[in-house]
Structures are given as structure tokens and as C-alpha cells.
Design brief:
This protein is mainly beta and about 100 residues long. It has one domain (about 5-100): OB fold (Dihydrolipoamide Acetyltransferase, E2P), CATH 2.40.50.840. The protein has strands at about 5-10, 15-20, 35-40, 40-50, 60-65, 75-80, 90-95, 95-100. The chain binds zinc ion (ZN). Zinc ion binds near residues 14, 25 and 27.
């Protein structure tokens, strides 16, 4: 079964693509957006492990910056081992949190 697509938003005015959020386009302030789907596959650009994360997160807390289709970059919580830069991964969304692993 294929991994579920990720839903992003595209601004009708400037065509900027960004993660779903409330409020206007972060580039031009336009208020009209359209949802579109992208492949959840991505590539790890950077990863780090926090040994003393903010309250509410267990240690160690692993984060990865992942680039997906269209050059969209997502900060993801990592389940499991810390990935290496360049690793291929699949991003999923859990509420407001993007995850890999
Ligand atoms: Zn815009």
C-alpha cells in the first residue's frame, strides 16, 4: 500500500507552496489558497539529537530537516535512530507534527 500523500497549500496570488496553517500566505499575505498533495518521500538535509529537550518531549529527542517535493522543507520528529544526511525517508503527519521513521 502506498504511503499517504502529504497535503500542502499553494497561494493563488504568488504560487508559493507551504505547509497547512491558519492565516495568510507567508510570502505575499494573500488570503486565497488551494490544497494540493505531494509524495511523502524526502531526503534528509540535517539531523540532530537533543539530550535536554523542551518540557513535554522525552530525551533523547531527535529532529531532522527533510526536503520533499517542490523543495518544501519540513522539520520532522524522528522515530528510532538518527538518520544520516542524504538518507531517503518517508514523512507522515501526526496532527501538527511531521514525523519520519
Ligand atoms: Zn502568496
Amino acid at each position: 500500500m502506498p504511503d499517504p500523500a502529504l497535503v500542502m497549500l499553494r497561494c493563488d496570488s504568488c504560487q508559493a507552496e507551504f505547509t497547512p496553517r491558519t492565516g495568510p500566505c507567508p510570502r505575499c499575505g494573500g488570503v486565497h489558497t488551494e490544497p494540493f498533495e505531494i509524495d511523502p518521500g524526502g531526503r534528509v538535509l540535517a539531523a540532530t539529537e537533543l539530550t535536554a529537550p523542551s518540557s513535554g518531549w522525552s530525551a533523547p529527542h531527535r529532529l531532522a530537516l527533510v526536503e520533499v517535493a517542490g523543495g518544501i522543507r519540513l522539520l520532522c520528529v524522528v522515530r528510532g535512530a538518527l538518520p544520516a544526511v542524504g538518507d531517503q525517508c518517508t514523512v507522515s503527519r501526526d496532527g501538527e507534527t511531521y514525523r519520519i521513521g
